[in-house]
Fold this sequence. Notes:
Blueprint (H helix, E strand, L loop, with lengths): L1 H9 L15 H6 L4 H25 L8 H23 L1 H7 L10 H9 L6 H31 L1 E2 L2 E2 L19 H54 L1
Antiparallel strand pairs: 1-2
Helix pairs in contact: 1-7, 3-4, 3-6, 3-7, 4-5, 4-6, 7-8
Amino acid sequence: MKASLVREFSKGLIKENPVLVMVLGCCPALAVTTGVQNAIGMGAAATLVLLGSNVIVSIIRRWIPNEIRIACYIVVIASFVSMTQLLVKAFAPELDKALGIFLPLIVVNCIILARAEAFASKNGVIASALDGLGMGTGFTIALLIISSVREILGSGKVAGIPIAGSFSPGSILQPATAFVMAPGALIIFGLVLGTIAALQLRRTRAEREARWQAVLEAWKEAEAARSSPKRAKGGG
Length: 236
């Protein structure tokens, strides 16, 4: 049971990462990743909405008519988005200003609706909560990876803090502002996806070679066992 619950949480971190593997929620992943602080804020907001909506959908799933289930899911998601937006406005107005329209647009984020439809509507509350928390954490990790690279290359900073010794005036290495613009977002996103695809291909090849090696070793052992009785008879 514990192993199953751990798997429900961990799958969203790497194996089924919503942005880097399933390529969902790309709009905020490209739009708000100009800085690490924005990425953390968006990731935290999306995680809170994922967690809350998954739990509520899991609780009420037996009473929702199949014909209107998507509309009900959107109402639940919109409620949590509204609460999250009010919290951000009250306690982090600068973050609210930086995220802009992308904070209320969490309502139509395909990651959240997909988890409600594909998982929370078919599983229990605890598993759904862990699924939402894991997917939200994976979403945040993806935003942090993209935003870190963009902020370092585009402004020479990390979380708004200048990198000591790098990108200094007169240095050969200078920030490229294109990386904090839309073209830079697409370039970095493509490079990250390409790197992950290359790593997955390398892992697949290694696993395939290991399986073939195991088959070859088993065949050699079988051949050796088959030839042993013949030798014994010949010697006798």
